[in-house]
Design goal:
The complex is a heterotrimer of chains A (346), B (325) and C (330). Helices cover 34% and strands 24% of the residues of chain B. Chain B has 325 residues and is of the alpha/beta class. The relative contact order of chain B is 0.14. Chain C has 13 helices and no strands. Chain C has 330 residues and is mostly helical. The chains are: A alpha/beta (346), B alpha/beta (325), C mainly alpha (330). The interface between B and C is medium-sized, with 20 and 14 residues.
């Protein structure tokens, strides 16, 4: 059994914000990430899924220490990285890189793309002909080396993302954090980028943490999926388990809310429409953070925080009353409430 | 067949820019009837938003608009500004993607709805206030009388979008245009808002144009679907037909590029949407089309019926034969 | 480690890379070139640039362009000691002459040198100080940012002319101030004083730009790679702030010229021996009431046109550099 590439244990990230309430200034704490633990094996893709406020992007940035974790442990190849000094961390950065969401903001508009891709090579004093390396990287991502002297504004969104990927690859990392890499792209372009990412993963033995809110994209590319809500993990498991046999009410609600591009299926399936809004991460609900919108919450959910527990092989959920594998939340709710309230049937 | 409430014929919209003329819409025609929800699908450069901004009369002065836009028989293209203003907000209303910018942060929410009402209806302030609370209730805002007195920043994204919808339907418009209203919202909130839109349409009996790039959303709520590419309509038909038996290579490409757990490898559409400064001759999609032939570079294909669907592809019969073979 | 230099086997669907080239413009244009092109389309700015260039060249080359000397009192043609004083504009003296008989047109040209020098010098030094303060505050953030911005607010809050007048009087009374800031009535003192009050605008702008850039993903990307703060500032922040800085400098030039003229008019500016436009206005003094309109009109007009042109150019630059202009139409 090979050791995991990345091990995150009990990660916490809290932000202090100052809010102006009337005439006073109140200090509040945003609980962006509250005790997240997971691991990533070499060559694996872990999909990190959640809506806004889930903390998924924050987790990604903490792994790279672009944000400093408030507490918790992050081990890369067995080495604890949260305590590394600036110089040691800098060396380690060549092993882990990131691709950002916004193709229009992730490239410096005043640098040619060749310079942007070569920058990591310069920062780390990599020997060799940088121009040649940049050229090879551009070809690797499906662009032409002739493009190196052009500026970002001359490229389409999809092409810019490819450039971002090329830049992330320049130091030959083993881990890449992908923070919503296709969310800002047109649908017909997304597929091309996803294929590229999969091909590169095979060719270069990369491991990915793929952060996204689009569940169908995450499902396609991930080996395992972790579902986050308001800073906590709700469910973790193999992609088939989380999708087809989810045992957590939030995951099922989320899946239910994603419209399926097939009218016959979409209009006849039973859906769960969650009421209300996502609570603020400044004041997360006590106990289970999902309980305020959970159709099957009960008293224990307000009193005790559910631990992320193993329910079957490598399938974990944080819930006091998890569903059975294969059980539909919509059915459970319908059975309980003869008068449909939180449930939408079509 | 009910009379169309919105009737657009041969709409062309161009923008002069320092780099040249951007041809955003290049000959678009369609109808929307009462009680009907037309899902308008397209990617960047498709012209889907510009088309409906033209219907609303919200394009900048420098835009060059030709063609016909009729709302219940009244022609809007070339009409004087004050006539267009009377139509906008009263007979045609629009909701946009970002609820934050649609609402004035320094006015209470209820007051903003009232403002919309009083702009087009000659009723007393009290009556307007009562109507505003009714509308907020219709869009599913709990405790509408209390929340009407709150400011936009006290509402979440989904709630704000509901307020925007309430403002849009304040004058019972015949046509409601929704331009990507759920794109910026969380998935679980999007589901709620789609319910609200359908509810509202049912109550008003309005003709709705729902613009989106999300095919799932279209599958859920659209009666008919109109696919746009490079400023033109490429395919149009009933939602079931479009999804299950698409005829145009672009629609096919869109559907097969969606992540589907059964496919090992996704099938993207190669290339990228064209630059509308210099759209390709003939069929703009031919550069990315796996079935492109020399004939495609000739005339721009018109929408023609093919079975139950209208398609703008000159090779549609050959392709259909090839696919089923 | 797999050799990264081996490309992925060609996927037929990925092959049409060349199609992408159709999107690219034939000629690669850097963002600066694009901004220049947008500037050229701004009619008011272009006209102003031309007009200002003519004025500036005429002033700089005053020695060749001006028909008479800066302080030359022109004798009457019929000999004698009487000078050609207070002559209204005619074919010989385009702008007329002043109370000592000096040609106003020549004085305006020479005066332009002084005024323009004060304007540009003030802009450069105020710009340097403002940029340093703003960049430091923006980049460091936190308490440093707070402290510097409160200081900036303090300076901004001071009544401008009063302070300038007071500070102008200081070197007169205190010799040490004269050495440090400049002799009373000197250009150096003028530039110093204006700099001391004008840097705040640039500081604010630069801080704002740096703050927004700091959050941009391309800066995060540089950090993710391990780039040092110095590298981020030099390679990423500075090139992206130059645009707003230049715009800010432009407006400082206009401000400085205006300030100098005002101060000189009231006698708190440059010494009367220097023919700055403000001093020309001061010379006009009460002569306007007695009907010698040309003494006020021409200096005032040239001031107005110059400041207006600079402002239009600033507007043009600002619009040209506006990132929103770079977004696609649709």
């Amino acid at each position: 059994m090979s050791e995991p590439l990345l091990e995150v244990t009990d990660l916490f990230k809290l932000f202090e914000v100052r809010q102006n309430v009337g005439t006073r200034v109140i200090k509040q704490t945003v609980h962006a990430v509250s005790g997240v633990s997971f691991s990533l094996d070499p060559g694996e893709t872990l999909g990190l899924v959640g809506e806004s406020g889930s903390g998924k992007s924050t987790v990604g940035r903490c792994i790279l220490r672009l944000l400093e974790p408030t507490s918790g442990s992050i081990r890369f190849r067995g080495q604890e990285i949260t305590t590394l000094g600036r110089e040691e961390m800098r060396e380690l950065r060549s092993e882990m890189q990131i691709v950002f969401q916004d193709p229009y903001a992730s490239l410096d508009p005043r640098m040619t793309i060749g310079a942007a891709i070569a920058e990591p090579l310069e920062v780390h004093d990599i020997p060799g002909d940088h121009r040649a390396i940049v050229g090879e990287l551009l070809e690797l991502v499906g662009l032409s080396p002739d493009h190196a002297n052009r500026f970002p504004h001359e490229f389409s969104g999809g092409q810019r993302q490819r450039i971002g990927v090329a830049r992330a690859l320049s130091l030959r990392p083993s881990l890449i954090i992908l923070d919503e890499p296709v969310s800002a792209l047109d649908v017909s372009i997304q597929a091309g980028i996803l294929n590229l990412l999969e091909d590169l993963q095979k060719e270069l033995s990369l491991s990915y943490v793929f952060i996204a809110h689009d569940l169908s994209v995450v499902r396609h590319i991930s080996d395992r999926i972790a579902v986050m809500y308001l800073g906590k993990l709700m469910e973790v498991g193999d992609h088939k388990d989380v999708y087809d046999r989810s045992i957590h009410p939030y995951t099922q609600s989320l899946l239910s809310a994603v419209p399926i591009p097939n009218p016959t299926v979409e209009r006849t399936r039973k859906r769960i429409v969650l009421e209300g809004d996502l609570p603020s991460p400044v004041n997360p609900p006590s106990g289970c953070v999902f309980r305020t919108r959970c159709p099957i919450a009960f008293d224990l959910c307000a009193e005790e925080v559910p631990e992320l527990r193993l329910h079957s092989k490598a399938h974990l959920a944080a819930c006091h009353a998890p569903l059975l594998s294969g059980q539909s939340l919509a059915d459970v709710v319908a059975a309980r409430t003869p008068v449909p309230s939180a449930l939408s049937d079509q | 067949m009910t009379l169309p409430v919105l009737s657009v014929r041969d709409l062309h919209v161009s923008f002069p820019t320092p780099d040249g003329l951007v041809q955003a819409v290049r000959g678009v025609s369609f109808d929307i009837a009462q009680h009907e929800l037309l899902g308008v699908v397209g990617e960047s450069g498709s012209g889907k938003s510009v088309t409906f901004l033209a219907v609303m009369g919200l394009l900048p002065k420098r835009a060059i608009i030709t063609g016909s836009i009729r709302v219940g028989g009244q022609e809007l293209v070339g009409a004087p500004d004050d006539e267009v203003r009377k139509v906008r907000g009263k007979r045609v209303a629009m909701i946009f993607q970002d609820p934050l910018t649609a609402l004035n942060p320094v006015h209470r929410v209820g007051a903003q709805v009232v403002e919309m009402i009083l702009a087009h209806q000659d009723i007393s302030d009290d009556a307007a206030n009562a109507k505003a609370v009714e509308l907020l209730d219709l869009v599913g805002i709990p405790q509408p009388d209390v929340r009407a007195r709150q400011y936009p920043h006290e509402f979440s994204g989904g709630m704000r979008q509901r307020v925007v919808i309430a403002m849009a339907i304040a004058n019972s418009p015949e046509i409601l245009i929704a331009d990507e209203p759920t794109t910026a919202l969380d998935t679980t909130v999007q589901a709620q808002i789609l319910d609200v839109v359908q509810n509202v349409q049912h109550e008003l009996g309005a003709a709705v144009a729902f613009i989106t790039h999300d095919l799932g959303v279209v599958a859920r709520i659209a009666d008919r679907v109109q696919v746009m590419y490079a400023g033109r309509v490429t395919e149009r038909g009933e939602a079931h037909d479009i999804f299950l038996r698409p005829t145009h290579p672009y629609t096919r490409g869109l559907l097969t590029s969606l992540p589907d757990a059964n496919l090992d490898r996704l099938i993207p559409i190669p290339g990228a949407p064209p630059n509308m400064l210099r759209p390709p001759s003939g069929c703009a999609f031919r550069i990315r089309c796996p079935y492109a032939a020399d004939v495609c570079a000739g005339e721009i294909p018109e929408l023609k019926p093919f079975g139950a669907i209208e398609t703008a592809c000159v090779r549609v019969e050959e392709i259909a034969a090839e696919v089923s073979a | 480690m797999v050799d990264i230099l081996t490309p992925i086997p060609g996927d037929p669907v990925e092959a049409p890379v060349l199609e992408d080239l159709e999107d690219l413009t034939v000629e690669s244009k850097s963002p600066t070139q694009l901004a220049l092109r947008r500037y050229r389309h701004h009619r008011a700015a272009m006209i102003s640039s031309v007009v200002l260039l003519i004025i500036a060249l005429a002033c700089v080359f005053a020695t060749f362009v001006a028909p008479y000397g800066e302080n030359e009192a022109i004798k009457s043609p019929d000999g004698g000691l009487r000078n050609e004083i207070l002559v209204p504009p005619n074919s010989q003296f385009w702008f007329g002459t002043d109370s000592i008989g000096r040609d106003l047109y020549s004085r305006v040209l020479y005066g332009g040198r002084v005024s323009l020098f004060v304007g540009i010098a003030s802009a450069i030094s105020a710009g340097l100080i403002g940029t340093a303060v703003g960049a430091f505050a923006g980049f460091r953030g936190g308490k440093i940012d707070n402290g510097l911005m409160r200081f900036t607010d303090l300076v901004l809050g001071l009544p401008l002319l009063v302070i300038l007048i007071i500070m102008r009087l200081l070197p007169e009374k205190q010799p040490w101030a004269a050495t440090v800031l400049g002799e009373p009535g000197s250009k150096r003192l003028m530039v110093t004083l204006i700099t001391l009050v004008a840097w705040t605008g640039t500081a604010r702008i630069v801080r704002g730009v740096v703050l927004s850039l700091k959050e941009k993903e391309f800066v995060e990307a540089a950090r993710a790679v391990g780039a040092s703060d110095k590298r981020i500032i030099v390679r990423h922040l500075v090139p992206n702030t130059i645009g707003p800085i230049v715009v800010s400098l432009t407006f400082i030039v206009a401000l400085a010229i205006g300030l100098e003229s005002t101060l000189s008019y009231f006698g708190f500016g440059l010494s009367p021996t220097q023919s700055s436009w403000g001093n020309l206005l001061a010379d006009a003094g009460t002569n306007v009431i007695t009907g010698k309109w040309w003494l006020i009109l021409f200096p005032a007009l040239i001031l107005l046109i110059t400041i207006l042109c600079i402002n239009f150019m600033g507007d043009g630059l600002r619009d040209a550099l506006d990132p929103k202009q770079e977004q696609k139409v649709i």
